[in-house]
Amino acid sequence: MTQHDHVHDHGAGPHGHDHSHGHGEHGHSHPTGFKGFLYGIFVPHSHDAVDSIDDAMEAHAQGIRALKISLVVMLATTVVQAVIVAFSGSVALLADTIHNLSDALTAVPLWIAFVLSRRVATRKYTYGFNRAEDLAGLFIVLMIALSSIVAAYEAIDRIVNPRPVENIGWVIAAGIVGFLGNEAVAVYRIRVGRKIGSAALVADGVHARTDGFTSLAVVAGGVGVLLGFPLADPIVGLLISAMIAVLLVGTVRSVGRRLMDGIEPELVDRAEHALTHLAQVKSVEQVRLRWVGHRLRGDAVVTVAPMSLAEADRLAVAAEASVKEHMPNVDEMAVRVTATK
C-alpha cells in the first residue's frame, strides 16, 4: 500500500497521548507595552478562544443572540443621540450619531449570514452557506467607508457655513451615552466573536469600540465650545471621519484575509501538533486550513511506515478525530496517508 485518501465527518480512535499541554499556545508574538495595549484593543484575534465552542449550531445561536442584543442597544443609543442632535445642532454629535446608526445596521447582514449558515449544503452550494458571513464582512467595510464620507462632508459644510451649537451640556451627555453604549456592544461582540471564531463579528465589535472613542471626541468638542472655541465642534467631526478611515484599513485587512483563505499560522501549528500525537505518523508533509465563515475546513498529508489499507483507513479516522479534539472549530479534515518506501 502506497497511498490512502479518506474523508470523515465523525471522530473516534485511540490517540495514545495525554492532554497536559496547553492548546492555546501559539508560535508568534504580538507587540508589548503601550503599542501592545492598543493592538489588543483594536486588533483582537478572532481565534483566541477557539476551544470554547465545539458545536456548530451552538456557535450560530450564540452569534445570532449577540447580534440581537447589540442591535437593540445600538438603536437605543442612536435614538437618544438623534433627539439631542435635533435641538443642539452639533455636527460632531451628528457625525457620531450617523456612525452609530451604521454600526447598528451592520448587525442586520451579519444576522442574515448566521441564519443562512444554518442551511444544509445543496447540489449548487456543496460547501454550504457559511461564506455568507464573509460577504457580510464586506458590507461592514462599505458601511464604515460610507459613514466616514458622510461625517467628513457634514463637518466641512459646518466649517464653511458655521451654525451655533446649542445645549452643549446635552451634547456632552449624549457623547457619554454614545461611548457607554458602544463599549458595551464592543465587549459583547468581540467576546462572542472570539468564542465562535467569527472574524466578521470581531471586526464589528472593533467597529463599535472605535465608535465609542469617537463619542468621547464629541465630548471634547463640546468642552471646546464651552471654552469659547466654536470651531471645535466641526473640527472634531473631521477627526471622527479620519478615525473611521483608519479603522477601515484594519477591517479591510481582516476581512480580505478571510476572503483570500488566509489562516492564522498558529492554527496550522496546532493541527500539525494534533497529527503528530498519533504514534504511527512519522511526519506531517502538508496541512491546509481555511475559514468558511466561523468554521474551519482543511486537509493534510501524513507519512507512515508501510501498512495495510485497513490500517491506513483506521489511521485516517484517528487523525481526523485528533485534529477535531484539539480544534473544535474544525468541521472537516481530509487526511491522506502516504507510506514511506
Automatic annotation (TrEMBL):
Main localisation: membrane
InterPro entries registered for this protein in UniProt: Cation_efflux, Cation_efflux_CTD, Cation_efflux_CTD_sf, Cation_efflux_TM, Cation_efflux_TMD_sf, CDF_Transporter
UniProt-annotated location(s): Membrane
SUPFAM superfamilies per UniProt: Cation efflux protein cytoplasmic domain-like, Cation efflux protein transmembrane domain-like
Keyword vocabulary terms for this entry: Membrane, Transmembrane, Transmembrane helix, Transport
Ranges of Basic and acidic residues composition bias in the record: 1-28
Membrane topology classification: Multi-pass membrane protein
GO CC, alphabetical: plasma membrane
Molecular functions per Gene Ontology: cadmium ion transmembrane transporter activity; ferrous iron transmembrane transporter activity; zinc efflux antiporter activity
Ranges where the Cation efflux protein cytoplasmic domain occurs: 264-333
Transmembrane segments: 71-92, 98-116, 136-156, 168-190, 211-229, 235-252
Sequence ranges assigned to domain Cation efflux protein transmembrane in this UniProt record: 67-260
One record GO biological process: intracellular zinc ion homeostasis
Presence of the UniProt keyword Membrane in the record: yes
Region feature (Disordered): 1-30
Family: Belongs to the cation diffusion facilitator (CDF) transporter (TC 2.A.4) family.
PANTHER family membership: MITOCHONDRIAL METAL TRANSPORTER 1-RELATED
Name used for this protein in its record: Cobalt transporter
Protein source organism: Microbacterium sediminis
